[in-house]
Prior knowledge:
- By secondary structure, the protein is mainly α.
- The chain contains 5 helices and 2 strands, in the order H-E-H-E-H-H-H.
- The chain has helices spanning 30-43, 57-70, 93-96, 100-107, 120-137, and strands at residues 51-53, 74-76.
- It has a two-stranded parallel sheet with strand order 1-2.
- Strand 1, helix 2 (57-70) and strand 2 (74-76) form a beta-alpha-beta unit.
- Helix 1 (30-43) runs parallel beside helix 2.
Amino acid sequence: MTRFLLIRHAAIASSGKSLAGRMVGVHLDQRGRRQARALAEQLAGASIAALYSSPLERAVETAEPIATLLGLPVVTCEDFLELAFGQWTDRTFDELATDPRFECFNTLRSCAPVPDGEFMLQAQARMIIGLEKLRLRHPQTT
């Protein structure tokens, strides 16, 4: 069986404050860089065959210390991109708190649309298809 370690990107300056979504140019902050190095140290002895990342800078920056310690390249894959948050991208959670569409999204994500974005089900299907491609490419590995 193929084993996947699913890792969310480390901290960015807007963590917990706003939706970065697919914004480019969003990098790990100092805390995030420490988190990424600590995670790499935890995984240093792991037998990992391949390392894939969303192409977003913050995801690649989280993967790079792991790649360095394990001697693996970071392969970017669009299947693992963040949900497309459309009109909500770069909006603060305080701003979104008064939007009834955002309340609906947080109540029933599986069928609530994101304005000019994608449904959570679309993102889930995209990511599951991506994982299936990797399972076939890397059988019996981590």
